[in-house]
Specification:
Length: 328
């Protein structure tokens, strides 16, 4: 029986590192002390693009080249490319088209973009895994998550300006007969919160007609922990239907949006520290790629090994979240 495993994973980020002091000073000049905010979010530093020639596509291309090199593959070996982003450099053609060109992909590659906001890369991994299992002609997939978040961060709002980082992550999925890889996933959607995080705030049509702006993301104040009771319920349901106990999970690669949320999930399930992979203090919040940058760092540090059971969880605007089980 075929399964879908992660062959390789790589990360690209800009060279520029910005530490908390810059943001604390920035907002002090506006009469606000964001020191506690940065502690709650778990930030210390983040990578930011300061090069006008760098964007979400170029970061994705760099990550893709790195992961192909690591896997010993070329673009001709890839059957499907999915590019997940919520800050698309292009709407026409697809951003994935530029990756396909840069890696010299073959003519019959399936190429598409995906946008499920911050949940996008995890959902793309899940959707690609299920599709590959049903299509005998698709044996490999390149999944990229890339958000040029600093481009739309509002200098007057700490939730975006002091919180976001820029990065791209690329994963190669492949079919295998080994008992490993994708296991299952479960979703939660509540569209009542659809207007809390907006970009463009009034929509593209209004912005292009001069009745709105595309400068910055609009983030209305709301209690982000409102999703946690549903998160607990979905984690329990996913484990139960796959006949697993929480103790059997080796590592947790969760949304790096807020350290406070990670700690609440850890406390709720009494998860040991060594199983929690946190990288948001180094990368900032990178959006769609954040759970997989956690996976990458867990693998690189030796904390995640082949055969480990991993639980992914992440949330996108609206809200929608996905919880996914994978055997690495």
């Amino acid at each position: 029986m075929a399964n879908i495993r992660i062959n390789s994973i790589e990360v690209y980020h800009p060279n520029k590192v910005v530490k908390n002091d810059y943001y604390i000073d920035h907002f002090k000049q506006r009469g606000r002390d964001i020191t506690h905010f940065l502690e709650v979010m778990g930030r210390k530093e983040r990578y930011l693009s300061d090069n006008n020639s760098e964007n979400g596509i170029t970061m994705a291309i760099e990550a893709s080249k790195l992961v192909l090199e690591k896997a010993g593959m070329t673009g001709m070996d890839i059957d499907m490319i999915i590019f997940s982003t919520q800050v698309p450099e292009k709407t026409v053609p697809t951003n994935a088209m530029y990756v396909h060109h840069a890696i010299n992909g073959k003519k019959d590659t399936i190429v598409m973009d995906a946008n499920a906001n911050c949940a996008g890369m995890t959902i793309s991994i899940e959707q690609a895994s299920r599709y590959m299992l049903s299509n005998p002609h698709v044996n490999t997939a390149l999944i990229i998550g890339s958000d040029h978040f600093s481009l739309i961060a509002n200098p007057e709002e700490e939730i975006t300006y002091a919180n976001f980082g820029d990065a791209a992550c690329a994963v190669i999925l492949e079919k295998t007969n080994e008992n490993t890889g994708f296991i299952d996933a479960i979703y939660e959607v509540d569209s009542n919160y659809r207007d809390n995080i907006l970009y463009p705030e009034k929509g593209l049509s209004h912005a292009l007609n001069g009745n709105g702006s595309i400068d910055y993301m609009k983030w209305l104040p709301f209690d982000g922990s409102v999703s946690l009771p549903f998160t607990y319920e979905k984690i329990e349901k996913l484990l139960k239907r796959n006949h697993l106990d929480i103790e059997e999970i080796n590592s947790y690669c969760l949304s790096q949006f807020a350290l406070s949320n990670i700690l609440k999930i850890q406390e709720r399930f009494n998860i040991p520290d060594q199983k929690m992979i946190y990288v948001g203090d180094r990368y900032g919040y990178t959006g769609t790629s954040s759970p997989f940058i956690a996976l990458y760092e867990g693998i690189e540090s030796g904390r995640i090994k082949r055969g480990d059971l991993i639980l992914f969880w992440t949330i996108g605007g609206g809200h929608e979240f996905i919880t996914m089980l994978f055997k690495y």
